[in-house]
Design goal:
The protein is mainly alpha-helical. The chain has a domain of 30 residues. The chain is built from 4 helices and no strands. α3 runs antiparallel to α4. The radius of gyration is 25 Å and the shape is rod-shaped.
């Protein structure tokens, strides 16, 4: 009778598993340091996209330099 009041047995194990899952989800969602706030390594930055567009001839030099200045701040 005493274990039912404390929440022992499988009920306690159930809540321990739920708590572990919640903690795991919180930790898993944090951005990793040094990744630019993004967890996806295949995402390209704005400057990479701009450089590719210039290399492909989609932008002239003047437009490229202007947009590069805008991105750099």
């Amino acid at each position: 009778m005493e274990t039912m009041m404390i929440g022992g047995g499988f009920g306690g194990l159930f809540w321990l598993i739920i708590l572990g899952l919640v903690i795991w989800l919180i930790v898993d969602r944090r951005p990793t340091p040094g990744a630019g706030g993004s967890r996806h390594t295949n995402e390209r930055s704005a400057i990479d996209i701009l450089n590719a567009a210039y290399a492909n001839g989609e932008l002239d030099r003047e437009t490229y330099l202007q947009k590069k200045g805008d991105i750099s701040g």
